[in-house]
Amino acid sequence: MQAPLSALLTVKSEVLKSLMIDGQECLQASYVCIYEGEIQGTGIIATLPFEIEEQFYGIERFSGNIGEKSGTFVLENFGFAESEEGKTIKKIVPGSGTGDFLGIIGDIILVSSKDKKVNITVHFEFEPKLPKED
């Protein structure tokens, strides 16, 4: 079963660092995001430095609720930014769910302007449980 959900994503804090790697300046960032709506919780994101400022890769730990289910899971964040718009693809890391999120798989795709509040749509499902062997 796949369930599309909507939520508002707000960046609450942001820390940017400039690093020199192999003689090139690269940016690294960390964010705290709040999800409000049909998915509620907090995402803590750490990005890795890229040579190209318009691209980023990050890991996010989500903690919160989707309906009656609660727990945590990890998302891989892939993104790029161009002038005033950006696109981020967040994929749930298989096997990363805890609590009620055991077996969760899916993704979040968001397109945003340079605003700190973004509407998102979440697609997720749960992997089928394998029967126990005797």
Model description:
- It is a single chain.
- By secondary structure, this protein is mainly beta.
- It has a single domain, classed as AOC barrel-like, CATH 2.40.350.10.
- It contains no helices and eight strands.
- Strands 1-2-3-4-5-6-7-8 form an eight-stranded antiparallel barrel.
- It is globular and about 55 Å long.
- It starts with a strand and ends in an 8-residue tail after the last strand.
- The model has no long low-confidence stretch (mean pLDDT 80).
Query: Which structural category do the helix and sheet elements fall into?
Result: mainly beta
Order of helices and strands: EEEEEEEE
Figure out the total of helices: 0
CATH homologous superfamily descriptor: SO1590-like
Distance between the termini: 28 Å
In short:
With 134 residues, this protein is mainly β. The protein is 0% helix and 72% strand. The chain has one domain (3-17, 26-126): AOC barrel-like (Beta Barrel).
Secondary structure blueprint with pairings:
Blueprint: E1 3-21, E2 24-37, E3 39-48, E4 55-66, E5 69-82, E6 85-92, E7 104-113, E8 117-126
Antiparallel strand pairs: 1-2, 1-8, 2-3, 3-4, 4-5, 5-6, 6-7, 7-8
